[in-house]
Every structure is written in C-alpha cells, then in structure tokens.
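Re: beginner question about structure tokens

> Can someone show what the tokenized structure looks like for a real chain? I only ever see the sequence side.

Sure, here's an example I had lying around. Input first:
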Amino acid sequence: MFSTAMSLSTAAVVAGGAVRPDAIRPADLRFCGLRREALGIRLLSASPQAGTAKRKMLAAAATGNGAAGSGGFDYDLVIIGAGVGGHGAALHAVEKGLKTAIIEGDVVGGTCVNRGCVPSKALLAVSGRMRELQDEHHMKSLGLQVSSSGYDRQSVADHANNLASKIRSNLTNSMKSLGVDILTGFGTVVGKQKVRYGKVGFPDNEITARNIIIATGSVPFVPKGIEIDGKTVFTSDHALKLESVPDWIAIVGSGYIGLEFSDVYTALGSEVTFVEALDQLMPGFDPEIAKLAQRILINPRKIDYHTGVFASKITPAKNGKPVLIELIDAKTKEHKETLEVDAALIATGRAPFTKGLGLENMNVVTQRGFIPVDERMQVMDADGNAVPNLYCIGDANGKLMLAHAASAQGISVVEQISGKDNILNHLSIPAACFTHPEISMVGLTEPQAREQADQEGFEISVVKTSFKANTKALAENEGDGIAKMIYRPDTGEILGVHILGLHAADLIHEASNAIALGTRVQDIKLVVHAHPTLSEVLDELFKAAKVTGIPQAVSEPVAA
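And the corresponding structure tokens:
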C-alpha cells in the first residue's frame, strides 16, 4: 500500500531492540525494493574465488566505515532519516567504501515499514483470503467447499504489527552488520557540511560530513476543517492498527490509499462510502483502467461514492452521536449534504516532513513544503543554485512519492558522490495498488502520452490484452483484467504500460525494465516467456504491437 501519494519513509527513527545478526535471512530483507546486499549476501554465479573476493570487499567496506571520514570530516556521508530511502542509500554507500552515519529520531523503517507499505500488505493478505473464502461461486468452480469464513480482529492486527516489527529489526541489523553508525535524534543542517542532532532533554551533538542526504519522508495530509481523534476520524497511520472494524466507514479520497483500505474494510464486513473531490474516482490512474477497476473493485461491493465534493468539515463521534461529514460542491462551494457514518478515514495524500531541518541556514526555501532539487537530487537554494554537498531524496522532494523511488534516488546520489554521474529516469519507476485484483503502472497514461505526442509531433498506438485469454489466469478462475501498452509505432519506444489483474504488481517489472533500458517493442517481443504463466499476458501485449516506422534506436531515457 502506499504506493503513490503515499509510501514512504517518514522522518528519522531510533534503532529498535537488538536482534541476533545470525537470525537474519536474506529473504527477510527483500521488502519495498530493499536489496539482498543488505547483509552482503548475493547469489554468486561466478567462481568460488570471485565469491571470496566479494565477501572480502564487503567485509572491508564494513570495517572501513569505522575509520575516520576522508578529508578531515567525521563522515563521508550523513543521512537524515532512516526510512526505505535512507536505508537504501546507506547500504549502497557502505558498498562504495564510504564512512556512513544515519540519523533517526523515531523508528527505523519510516512510514513504509511502520505505517505504510509493510503493515498494509499484511492487512491486504487477510482481505484477499477472506474474499476468496467468501466467494462461494469461485470456490465451487474449483471443486472446493467451504462451510463458513470468519476472522479475529486482534489476530489480524497482530499479524500486521508483527510483520512491521520483524522488518524493522531486519533493517536495523542490516545497517549495524555493515558498520553504518545509527545516531539517535532529530537531525538539523546547521551549516555547510555540518549536522546537529539530538533528543529533547539531552545535549545536542554536532558532526561534519563531506555529503549530506535529507530523507525525512512524509506524513498524512489532513485538510482544514477535519478533526482527527484517532478513533472515529483517523488517518492511515491509525487505520493500520485495526483497532476496530466499523459497520459504515467513509473514506475521503479514492487514490491508492483509499482504494486499498476499501478492499480491506469491505472484505472484513464494512460498508464504504468514498468522498472524492474530483469528478471521477481513482483520478491518478489511466482513465480506461480506472473505469474497469470501478466495475471490478467498487460496483460489486458494498461501496457507494460522492464525486465532485469536498468534506468541508468532519466531526468525530461523541456522546452517542455518529461522525458527521459536511459535503460541499467542489466548484460552487455550496452545501450539498451531511453524511452520518460510524467512522471516517482521511486518505487525502501525504505532506512532506521538512520542518525544523535548518534549511534556512543554507538559503533553501521549500515549495509547498517540498525541498526543491535538480535532476540529480541536489538541493536548490532560493536563488536557483545547487547547494554543494546537500541532497534530498524521497517524499521530502516530492518528485515521486513511492518508497522504492526514494531508495532508487538514494542509490543514484551515492553513485554521484562516488564519482559516477547518475540521473534516475523517473518514468521507468513502477507503481502498484494492492487491491484484489491488483493494479500496476509505469510510464505515461494514455492522455499524458497523447498530450506529449501532440506537443512533439509524433503518433502513438495503443494495444491491449485480456487476462481471459491467459491459461494460468483461467486455471485460477481469475480472468478479470487487462494489460495495456502505449507506444510509438515509428520507433517502438514504450511510453507506458498499465495492468489490472491477478499479480499485476509483479508483472509490471518487465515493462519497467524495458523503459529503463530503452528496449524497443520489436526487440522485447522476441523474448521467450514460460508457459503457462501470467507473464504471457505481457508477452501477448508486446507481440500485438506493430512498429510501422524504420527500426531505429530509442533515445536515451530522459530523467523526469
């Protein structure tokens, strides 16, 4: 969950309780784009000698991190914020031989691990199984009989909390095992290559670093007029604790967060009402995918919705009275009606967590709270100049609010400060919504592609394939869904791919990698896919594309 407008790693965090390093398994670290190299463990297909050399290199990196930083600095790199972005940057920095410290004032893992991607996946795993058990027709079609289905709310909540705790411990120990210094407190940039950190009531510490990365993430955005009590009116932070399953819940916002929670709540028995400010649900999705998703994910379920309205005021339930939601027309601002519900989830996106970072000391002015950066994630000052040795990654810069985007940006920055220029192509970064079935996407939507084509003077083509034509999907009786590709018929350049269907979140990466590497449709359609697998949905999609122009190399991906 929290894949857009969402997902992310909130500000700095305190290392959790110690966990034995020998209890960590490589598989435990493959979450939200986290890499197996976290513990210096990688599948070695090379010779034993190469494996030994690799292990020696990683051991040297870990040992080197305890040495003095180069150039008289305390550290080569200091990262403020230990969410997924900061964690990814720290591991890559150690691999590059940089002495690295990470400052965390809350809990390691940030939003993604503690209040986002990780616990939400646990809840969605439960909702997926509940849906399957409750679908009598589906079960009978497979020859299965289920007498009844049910759940224990506290056990479900414990599953989500235990998963978050496990991943948090894994992240903490992966950094400790490689020698990353985890410093406790809130970090502030006090001057050129200087950071101060500390906890309330304790003396501050000041350190120097050749380079600094800000990775403080985001927090839930709550519009004016909405009163949060954490019990009957709450954000995703509270919802993931699953302290209750209300009979009727309003979800304000129908983006990724709202859509995923609607999947959870309806599977557990709640009725859901969406409140959406725009004229259509799921405004961030490709319109064709959104239309089909509404038919599959919303219309058959106990969900109704109000579009084109703002929740101008929300009052928590108190003294036996229900939650009151006053709706006004999004355009005229006239009062339309007042909803009375048992609870309200505010899923109106996320806001950058950037206050108190000392940006004014570097002549940096935020834009709607976001820290301005260039294409290399280097922070820009109020005069439009790059601030030397200061970078910002993840939700705090607002380029793409996804946990794995933050990690990719962090790795890109480390490449640069290690002497290798690197510009991340944000159009190649996939996103996913973990509903049942899932939705995933990478690149441009069809309207975005058509707008770009009109501006730059080229044609686009669109091809689609259906899950109903896929053997593996039919074997599972999960034929609902489509895959859609937008591309240039003159060059074969892939502009965007969108998938709605079984395991869409896993399938999108072939398209994502193709865009990242500049692979043309006429080349990728020759790739062999195992049969019968869901991957053949994309195989058929690529094969359906027709390149009419003279084959030519696709230009290098442009950073966005």
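Each token stands for a local structural state, so reading them left to right follows the chain. The chain has a mean pLDDT of 88.
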